[in-house]
Amino acid sequence: MFLHYIDLSIRSIKSTPVISVLMVFAIAIGIGLTMTSLSVFHMMSMDPIPHKSQAIHFPQLNIMDEGGEWHTDDNIPYQLTYQDAINLYNADADFPRSPSFRSGFSVHLNTPDVKPTMEPARLVYQEFFSIFERPFIFGAPWSKEEQQSKPYVVVISESINNRLFNGQNSVGKSIYLDNKSYRIVGVVEDWDHHIKYYDLNNGAFNSPEKLYVPFSIAPLEEIGTWGNTNGWKHETLNGYQSLLQSELVWVQFWVQLNTAAEKEAFSALIMAYMEDQQSKGRFNRDNLQYALRNVTQWLKYNQVVSEDNRILVGLSFMFLLVCVANILGLLLAKFLKRAPEVGVRRALGASKKHIFAQHIVEVSVIGLAGGILGIVIAQLGLWGVRTTNRYYEALATMDVSLLLAAPTIALMASFIAGLYPAWLVCRTQPAIYLKSQ
Amino acid sequence: MLTMHNVGKIYQTDSVQTHALRDFSLTVNEGEFIAVTGPSGSGKTTFLNIAGLLEPFTSGQYTLDGIDIGGLSDNQRADIRNQKIGYIFQGFNLIPDLNIYENVEVPLRYRGVPAKERKVRILECLEQVGLASRARHLPQQLSGGQQQRVAIARALAGKPRFLLADEPTGNLDTLMARQVMELLEEINQNGATIVMVTHDPELARRAPRNIQVVDGELADLTFYQGKPATPASAPEKSAHESVVGG
């Protein structure tokens, strides 16, 4: 019977093409806009590393003296000072961890053939690659020994390797970052992330870095950050070394803590460190305060998905509701015009259930067609977002779950729109129409 | 087969009450062919609609094939319509988007008859009304008489025991009307009980039994014993006596 209803639906759509096309377009536009905003929202709010987001943590220390105020909810600075990052990295503990900050270099091969390009780089320790599971195409991360004593090494991204070395294994070759030669130790896949969750300072949806150099290069080459640097008290800086010893916060820090026990142990380590620092004249406050958030908590804390995004999704669903209301009106007109035929069907033995099912299937066919067309419109919408705002490039895509959600939402919307007209038409009293037909 | 006892039907609006049927009592036996006549607005179609379970009645008792219709739900009435009753309408009431084959198929689909059996039955019925070769035509491609024959085939497809015809020849010329009437007589001879509403006295005379409805009441009842006769020659009986006497 279901296939028969589909057949009847297609005939009905063909017999009333204008009204049917109007309904399909109404639902398609509603779905298109809803899916565009929902796709961006979905990408923004999805867990960037689901299997590990509960294990990777970001520590924050309240370095301010008593009475100091920061603009965060818990009054703790977002980033760490260089000295705290280094001290936490060097602390005696087995947890994989790495300080990190974004910078950039002019990249070239010191030959006239290849033009230098300015490329963003990330300064990290070797553990960064394992914490964030960066897959290597060639080579491997630099060793502990290299990052301490021979730090002029680099891991390049696949796209740089393709551009400079035609995709060949470039491990062992040298490239120039600014005026220094660095030996390539590895080539990693380009990082195709939607949210740059490991560094929200330059924008949560910014593009990933294409080079990785040891964190230990920073003091040697006096490399400045391309991110935010903030302070809580007046400090006069005399050169790069004073920046490293200052109370300015500009370094991110990630640590992998797989269990609650490990988290507890690292918390104790932080507390011990703060007490030690306090004894040396820092952290002049009554209560030492720190935070240790996993990736999910970190994204929420940083309000990666803003209230505006939520409102936009809400508005798009309201627009879909307007479309549903329009479809409801069109369906009422269409179905009630068919009441005489329904009267005949009822006389021939169709129950109310049969008539209701027939009309709901017809509405669903319209909804499905609208949903599929809606995906096309959503793709156009997302293309529009990508081309007008490069910042949202990684976000303005539709993943499989949303591709499946689009027709599902369309079906639900059309079902809601069709519920009342189908109910009304199934209550047709056959006798009224049989004589007058 | 069909027994109505003091059945009444009142149409109610905010200010007006219309008695379409009053104390209507009638028994129709298995295999009968009854013609129902009466002036326009007398209640013939209301009687037929109630008999065909197309609308509920206001008072009285109605049993069809031993089933008390008064207590049935809408779905149960739909089931009985589908299983036991066939309809032939004055306006044919074929579904314009469906071809002849599919029109005849409609009641069988609602009955859940398997596709193979449906096909056999449909072709059989179309053969019976002489339209098997037009199975793939749309209703609007047929003449009025042919459309009515399709409607008869549709009514027969479910093998109903009870056939209701509301002015089945009302929209047909004399020749076609005669053909349709002959078809109904043939169907009756094959065992189906037929109740036919008509304005045409000549057609009514061909039915073995006539009843007349005036102002919603059974006014006159005439037997022709299967051969043409004038109303005056029929035995005089009161409506109620006739019902009881059959």
TrEMBL record, chain A:
Ranges of residues in domain MacB-like periplasmic core: 20-270
Record keywords: Cell membrane, Membrane, Transmembrane, Transmembrane helix
Listed InterPro entries: ABC3_permease_C, MacB_PCD, Macrolide_Exporter_MacB
Membrane-crossing residue ranges in chain numbering: 21-44, 311-336, 356-382, 402-426
Signal peptide annotation: none
Membrane protein topology class: Multi-pass membrane protein
Annotated ranges, domain ABC3 transporter permease C-terminal: 315-430
Record GO cellular component, one term: plasma membrane
GO MF: transmembrane transporter activity
Record's subcellular location: Cell membrane
Protein's name in the database: FtsX-like permease family protein
Organism for this UniProt entry: Alteromonas profundi
Automatic annotation (TrEMBL), chain B:
Keyword Cytoplasm: no
Domain ABC transporter, chain residue ranges per copy: 2-240
Gene3D superfamilies, alphabetized: P-loop containing nucleotide triphosphate hydrolases
UniProt keyword list: ATP-binding, Nucleotide-binding, Transport
InterPro entries: AAA+_ATPase (IPR003593), ABC_transporter-like_ATP-bd (IPR003439), ABC_transporter-like_CS (IPR017871), ABC_transpr_LolD-like (IPR015854), MacB-like_ATP-bd (IPR017911), P-loop_NTPase (IPR027417)
Signal peptide: none
CDD domains: ABC_MJ0796_LolCDE_FtsE
Origin: domain of life: Bacteria
Gene Ontology terms: cellular component: plasma membrane; transmembrane transporter complex
Disordered as annotated region, ranges: 227-246
PROSITE patterns, sorted: ABC_TRANSPORTER_1 (PS00211), ABC_TRANSPORTER_2 (PS50893)
GO MF annotation, one: ATP binding
Family according to the record: Belongs to the ABC transporter superfamily. Macrolide exporter (TC 3.A.1.122) family.
Protein name as catalogued: ATP-binding cassette domain-containing protein
Organism encoding this protein: Alteromonas profundi
